[in-house]
Structure formats: structure tokens, C-alpha cells
Amino acid sequence: MPQISINGHPCEFEDGQSILEVALAHETEIPHYCWHPGLSVVASCRICLVEVWAPNPRNDNKLEAIPKLLPACQTPASDGQVVHTDSPKAVGNQRSVMEYLLINHPVDCPVCDQAGECSLQDYAYRYGRAGSRFEEEKLKQSKKDLGPDVLLYGDRCIMCSRCVRFTREVTGTSELMVSGRGASEAIDVFPGVALDNELSGNVIDLCPVGALLDKDFLFQQRVWYLTRTPSIDGLTSAGDNISVEHNHGTVFRIKPRTNLEVNQWWISDEIRWGWKFIHDESRHRIPAVRGHESWAPEEADVAWSTALSSTVAGLKDRHIGVLISPMLACEDAWHLARMARQMDPDALLAVGPVPFEGEDKTFPGGYTIRAEKAPNARGVRRVLEAFGGRVTDAAGFEVALSSESGPEAVVLTGNYPSAWVTESFAEALGDRFVVLIDTMPNRLETRCDVFMPAATWVEKSGTFENVDGRLQAFERAIEPLDYCKSDAQIAIDLLAVHDGVQADWFNAAMTRQAMSIESGMKEFLEEVHMPEAQTTVESDMEVVEL
């Protein structure tokens, strides 16, 4: 393969890569602001200028210095190049660009949401000057409300134009523009047009400084207090790779994780801000059993013990039907189906209702918003079919409830972010024994005989299968709310009570191994895409003992 030298280190590359892309691929930092792998190259910020020596074919391919500095983001790598990012000329340019960018930038890092993950902060420390030589009054830019979710702090903008290019090239909606010239240049929306497309939140992630801010996250938390857990979109069938950022058991925001095979660098706004039901005040927190008074929080153990024993007694020696929600993980589905089939070998297994909204929508940049609003309909069906026997969908389950040979007792799971039980379904249940495992209130909470509160997807580990059949594992971000349990743990506890043994703790990895051995689903050991291991970044800040 062809190779170039960057600061004395040989780096192989593929045809078409720029010097900056080669450097990043080999973990060599070249400062940059305007460049982004998902956007066009404009080479406007100029901080990535490097000194390049290249073979001269007119002089027996001897290395000769190119007289001027070249933008690393725009200059193609060619075999034999020698690149210096730390030469006096390159370092002088970096310092000059940083000084220029900071001339009118407010020193408001203590109140800026971007502090701690700001490229301007990082590069000012690594490549900037120790002090400012600018003594004149700074130019002021206004704060603007760009749309329902995004604020613009104009003073902080460095005019990298990433946001403008995103709305032109990725969403194709072109709400943003660059107005003015020179020192009066500013980002703005076109008159009468708000930044309100389905991917608008991505401009917040794209902004390398604190200019574009998330209204929902504004002044909520310092980023260095947040723990970032890799997860998968639990609201749609897209399977977008995300990071759940949380602190002390509270989710503060969800951001995209780069995966070029699934969601590229982006996520939709419904994924970014659709998780609020996780901390909804109306969420169920403690079991309930018909005929028993409500339990206080300190009686949670008694509540669970009573709920589990009542459920086993109600299901015993009856024909069972289990409706397994497509919002659940594959591991949840397996434990629930296994529990049902051990109690009743002829148990009817069904995939719960799969919500749809409109049609799939693909943007010019290639990102697709899925109309199917369930993360694991295919995964749940895959698991249930591995058990054999009677497997149906929600409509078939409702028909079975209306027949004389239908289930005598049912276990229903929800975990939807909103109401999901239809009137006809509630009527079809009749007077049979009903167990409900759910998160949010619905019309069955007063009808069911036993209710058990479930954990949401950010409160457990598991595997989702997206619309393209890709199996992806996710990790638990926060502990389950109060006394909630994952559906898998509830199934394990029920089976333990039924068999009169001690219950095991749910473990997603061990469950996938059991699924492979007991149910022959080898794909859960061989084909599941695991999140990349998290690496700890060591600070380069010198610590002085006081």
C-alpha cells in the first residue's frame, strides 16, 4: 500500500484519502473545525494547514518542500509525501488561527454547556497562546431561537458552517444560511423558516463550540459528571447506535454513536428526545394484586413475593397465552416464552402490536427514519418461532381470545412509551386471569389480576434486531426505577416460584449463551454486534499539589 510520513511516522493509506483522514486513521491529531466526514470539504477554518514535502517527478523524485502550507482536510495523500504538523510554520499558523478565533469569542466557559467537550477549549490549550493581545472591544452577536429545540449563541460561533452544510446536504431542507460578510458574518435561518426538520438536533452535535445548544439540556448538567453508556435505539426499528448519558440514575440526554452501516453519524429527533417517559411521574413502581391493599415502598419485597405467587397460582394448570411486546429485548422474549412453555407446553406465544406512523422517509444524505416504531419485532418473532408450537401476531392473539379454545390465562407485556391497549382487545380478555407486565398506565391496570412494573430498555441489557435483520447488543445505563424489574428477571422469578427453587439473577450474556445451546439460536453467539469497548481518556493537564 502507498504510505506517507506524518511527523516522522509512516502511515499507510487508501487512494482518495486526504492527509487529515490518514492522520486520524492512525490516531495522529491534526486540529480541525470545519471538516466532518459526513459533510463536504470547504477548508475554511484553516487551522489544519500543514507543511508538506513531496517527490518532484521533474527532479528525479527528490523530496521538495511545497512553498505554502496546505489544508490537510482538502489535500489528497500521495505516495512518498512527508507531512509536518509540528514544524515552526505549521505551529505558527495554528497559533495565529486560534488567536483570530478567540478575538471576539466570549470567555464564558463557566456557563457554557459545551465546556468539557469543546474543540475550541481543547485547541486553545494545545495550540493557542497563553494570553490575548487583543485590547479592543469585542464585537457582539445576538442569541437566536432557531427552532423548537435549538438555540444559537452567536458570540460563540466560529463560522465553521457545519450546520449550514448539514441542512443542505444531509436533510435537504436548507433552513440555515450564512448572512453578512467579514466580521458581521453570522449563522441564521431564512426569514419565516424555523429549524424544524426531523434531524434538526444533529446540528448540536456537529457544532464544535458552544454556539448551537440543546434547549432541553440547557444548564442541566456539566458533561464531566455524565456517564456515557453505549445503547441501541429503543423507540423505532432503525436500530440506531446511541449513547445514553446519565448521572445518579437520571438520563440527561441521548446522542448518536457513529456506525456507518446503520445510522452514519446521525439520529432522528424522535430518538434524541423521545426517552422522557423513562422518568415519567406516572410510571408504575410497585406490584399490585387484585384483592390486596396497595403496598408502601418499604413493603416492596412483600409486594413482589405476593405478585409472583399469585401469578403462578393463577397460571397453574391452565392453558396460557403470552403476548410479548416488540419493545422488549430478545433475552426478555426468550425467558418469558421459556417460562410459559414450562408451565404449559401448548402455551400460545404472540408478538405484541407493532406501531406504525406514516411511511419510511430517506433524506438526501442517506439517513432513513423508519415508520415502524418498535425496536425488536423481528427479534421477538425470531425467538418465539425457535420454541415451535403456536406463534401468532397481536391480531391472531385477539382472535384466539375470542374463541372457546383460547387461553384461559394470559400474560401481557407492554413497555410502550404511550397507551397501546385497544378497546376491542380489552373486551376480548373477558373474565379470564390476566397478568400485566408494563411501564406506563393503560386501561388494563385496573382490569388485570396481577400487575408487575417493568424496566425500560435503558434500565437493562439485551439485544435488538433492527429492520434490516441486524442483531445489536446494548448495555444497561441506569438502575431500574425504584422497585421495577426487567421482563426477563420477572420471568426467571416466576419460574423459580413455580419450581420451588432459588431464582437466578438475569445476565444478558449468559442468556444469549443459553439461547444458543437450548434453542439452537447460534446467531446470538456468532452474529450479535457488540458495542465497542469504552476507553478511558487520561487528562494531559498537569496536576499540582497545593
Question: What can you see in these coordinates?
Answer:
With 546 residues, this protein is an alpha/beta fold. The chain folds into three domains: 3-99, Ubiquitin-like (UB roll), CATH 3.10.20; 118-225, Alpha-Beta Plaits (2-Layer Sandwich), CATH 3.30.70; 288-526, Rossmann fold (3-Layer(aba) Sandwich). Helix content is 24%, strand content 19%. The chain is built from 14 helices and 25 strands. It has helices at 19-25, 88-102, 119-127, 162-169, 202-206, 269-273, 300-315, 330-343, 377-386, 394-402, 423-428, 487-499, 508-519, 523-526; strands at 3-6, 9-12, 49-56, 62-65, 70-71, 82-84, 143-145, 150-153, 176-179, 186-189, 212-214, 227-232, 241-247, 250-256, 288-289, 320-324, 348-351, 361-362, 368-369, 391-392, 409-413, 433-438, 450-453, 462-465, 471-474. The strands form seven sheets. Strands 15-23-22-21-16-17-20 form a seven-stranded mixed sheet. Strands 1, 2, 3, 4, 5 and 6 form a six-stranded mixed sheet that branches. Helix 7 (300-315) packs across helix 12, helix 8 packs parallel to helix 9 and helix 8 (330-343) packs parallel to helix 12 (487-499). The protein is elongated and about 90 Å long. The two termini are 52 Å apart. The relative contact order is 0.09. The model has no long low-confidence stretch (mean pLDDT 92).
Question: Which helices and strands, and how do they pair?
Answer:
Blueprint: E1 3-6, E2 9-12, H1 19-25, E3 49-56, E4 62-65, E5 70-71, E6 82-84, H2 88-102, H3 119-127, E7 143-145, E8 150-153, H4 162-169, E9 176-179, E10 186-189, H5 202-206, E11 212-214, E12 227-232, E13 241-247, E14 250-256, H6 269-273, E15 288-289, H7 300-315, E16 320-324, H8 330-343, E17 348-351, E18 361-362, E19 368-369, H9 377-386, E20 391-392, H10 394-402, E21 409-413, H11 423-428, E22 433-438, E23 450-453, E24 462-465, E25 471-474, H12 487-499, H13 508-519, H14 523-526
